[in-house]
Amino acid sequence: MAENLTIARPYAKAAFDSAVEHNALDQWQNMLQALALACKDDGILLFLKNASSPSAASDSLLKLLDGILDEYGQNFVRVLGENARFEVLPEIYDEFLKLRKEHDKVLSVVLTSARPIGESEVSALKDKLSAKYGCSVSLSFQIDPSIVGGAILQIGDKVIDASVKTSIKNLSSTLI
């Protein structure tokens, strides 16, 4: 859904800028998470789409999340309602989280290995990545026995593939 992502980015940026300006990153994150969860529900989304007017849809969502949204969050909902953009709220939330990680200087890393990794190895990897990129590291793991050995690191958009499977594939293509 690349189109939803394209639509979501400016809204996420606006929400993020407001959150930074008002020193309310946690509050905005919580509000957007609640909105995203509500709009992931097909029944709620259908109800909002079939509302008699954009303001009726916004009012319904505001009533549903009464007490969760502050004044800025309520205005954000009204803008989304006027533009019929409730269906992109999950993507807005995801983009907000990316902007927050950038702001907080947190690097997301995915480590894929054929076997579980020991705590000392994980700690050493986090320390090296933190030193290299000058930020804290959020490391998640995946086990994939098909890579045979070695590991694959995904650091943002960059992939470092040091798996045995890829090495054998590369060797095979070189020999042919």
Automatic annotation (TrEMBL):
A GO term, aspect molecular function: proton-transporting ATP synthase activity, rotational mechanism
Localization of this protein: Cell membrane; Membrane
Coiled coil stretches, renumbered: none
Membrane topology: Peripheral membrane protein
Record key words, sorted: ATP synthesis, Cell membrane, CF(1), Hydrogen ion transport, Ion transport, Membrane, Transport
Cellular component terms per the entry's GO annotation: plasma membrane; proton-transporting ATP synthase complex
NCBIfam families on file: ATP_synt_delta, PRK05758.2-2
PANTHER family according to UniProt: ATP SYNTHASE DELTA CHAIN
HAMAP family, sorted: ATP_synth_delta_bact
Similarity comment: family membership: Belongs to the ATPase delta chain family.
Function: This protein is part of the stalk that links CF(0) to CF(1). It either transmits conformational changes from CF(0) to CF(1) or is implicated in proton conduction. F(1)F(0) ATP synthase produces ATP from ADP in the presence of a proton or sodium gradient. F-type ATPases consist of two structural domains, F(1) containing the extramembraneous catalytic core and F(0) containing the membrane proton channel, linked together by a central stalk and a peripheral stalk. During catalysis, ATP synthesis in the catalytic domain of F(1) is coupled via a rotary mechanism of the central stalk subunits to proton translocation.
Protein name: ATP synthase subunit delta
Organism expressing this protein natively: Anaerobiospirillum thomasii
Phylogenetic placement of the source organism: Bacteria, Pseudomonadati, Pseudomonadota, Gammaproteobacteria, Aeromonadales
Gene: atpH
